[in-house]
Amino acid sequence: xxxxxxxxxxxxxxxxxxxxxxxxxxxxxxxxxxxxxxxxxxxxxxxxxxxxxxxxxxxxxxxxxxxxxxxxxxxxxxxxxxxxxxxxxxxxxxxxxxxxxxxxxxxxxxxxxxxxxxxxxxxxxxxxxxxxxxxxxxxxxxxxxxxxxxxxxxxxxxxxxxxxxxxxxxxxxxxxxxxxx
Length: 181
Prior knowledge:
CATH topology of the domain at 103-181: Alpha-Beta Plaits
Helix content: 25-40%
Strand content: 15-25%
Number of strands: 6
CATH class of the domain at 103-181: Alpha Beta
Number of helices: 5
Radius of gyration: 43 Å
Shape: elongated
């Protein structure tokens, strides 16, 4: 037979376990169930099907005539002007030749960006097309001051002496490449 101590221990364990199981339910009071309200996201928007069924109009073809261009050239010896006709094909080839032949004058590279900005503003006041490269300068970047770009190399060559007398800097004539600038 079991002793009195064993019976008391078993009885105490039963009462404690019943208290642990049922007491929280009794003390909670009225139980409320919370359910989050949400809306489902539709998988595909509803749209007007008539939009996709409307026919697309045919493109209109316009006749465009290339204007006749004549270019005046001067004879260096006599100074007389000659006039020559250019065909649309030659005009296109000239524009292609000048499109990949842009030039610029690099006046200098400056560590002090304020000096570069001052020089650019001075050049712009005198009518030159001056810029600082690269456009998005960071505080420790070197600033390159350039004049141009221009498709006429001769125009920029004629400006070299004027720029040197104005700024005291001997500029370098370079090809302009917009992808690396």
